């Protein structure tokens, strides 16, 4: 006797395999660093200073006692909070996973900063990370829910329109087939919407089937005569 295969378990692992999750994390992280590098380069060139990758992969530039430190924190918030949220909405699109991806985005950056420089010891850096994480979480959740609530279009409307066009065309060419053409188009429309027309119970639109009216008056008189 052949061994029966166990059905595949539904859930997060079935919908999002580990390789796909890792690929999404890598893409979102790359988008973050690309946007952060572009914004930092533009800001430094406008200010007349030389660009350094310490602004991207370091923590000492984010300070609360200088204007340049506040500007660096604002640029980081734009990149991680706004661009990061948009990337999560576009690539992930699930509101239940926004917190995981937003936290992972900043956790990976913390590891990168620690490996390239040292463990962050600046309170302004931690405050900036907290604000950008909250912004990415709020905007990402809102965007994913808005995307999830969008109406899903099926092919029923197009099929009904095509069936109706075919029925009207048959009525213009042959007057005798008018009822047949309309009936066929209506039946096709019911099948597209998930209904089927027939005489069995539960086959109609209301699920109660079709019935035939019987004159009760004549039936009663016949029973009395008998």
TrEMBL record:
Species, as recorded: Sporothrix schenckii (strain ATCC 58251 / de Perez 2211183)
Keyword flag Transport: yes
Keyword Transmembrane helix: yes
GO biological process entries: Golgi to endosome transport; Golgi to plasma membrane protein transport; protein localization to Golgi apparatus
Biased composition (Gly residues): 160-169
Stored InterPro entries: Integral_membrane_SYS1-rel (IPR019185)
Bilayer disposition of the protein: Multi-pass membrane protein
Predominant location: Golgi
Subcellular location: Golgi apparatus membrane
TM stretches of this protein: 21-42, 74-92, 97-117, 123-144
UniProt-annotated stretches for the region Disordered: 160-226
Family indicated by similarity: Belongs to the SYS1 family.
Top-level division of the source organism's lineage: Eukaryota
Protein name (database record): Protein SYS1
Keywords associated with the record: Golgi apparatus, Membrane, Protein transport, Transmembrane, Transmembrane helix, Transport
Cellular component GO terms, alphabetical: cytosol; Golgi membrane; trans-Golgi network
